Amino acid sequence: MALSIPNSLVEATRRVEYNFRNFTTHYAILIFYIFFLSIFGNSSCMVILINVVFVCFLVYLNYQHPMVLFNCRDDIIDILAFLGAFTIWAMIFVFDICLNLWVSFWIASALAGLHALLWETEAPTTPAASDAAV
Hints:
Layout: H1 9-22, H2 24-38, H3 43-61, E1 68-69, E2 72-73, H4 76-94, H5 98-118, H6 129-133
Antiparallel strand pairs: 1-2
Helix pairs in contact: 1-5, 2-5, 3-4
């Protein structure tokens, strides 16, 4: 497994599909890391982001005892979605870092796409018709 340029469009498509399917978590971590670096100069925004990540971590660890918000029992996905939406709203509209996030998103997406294209994998191939007869 190494970096190499694909020989054809079919191979490039296969690599991108395979790598996006298998490295999704890594690409998400890359995107969030670049988001973090893009807001490094805004200290109040970083403090809020770190606190929200800490709360999400606590919600994840404390899932055995579900939270009750607004007199109804919420699922962990609902709570994390609310916290994520609130964080995005606060970061974009309150701290006015929309341009920073857009630029960092496109840079991270380009890096992830470039990795998916160039990372040569040993993707499983479909067996040939002669192998199926054996």
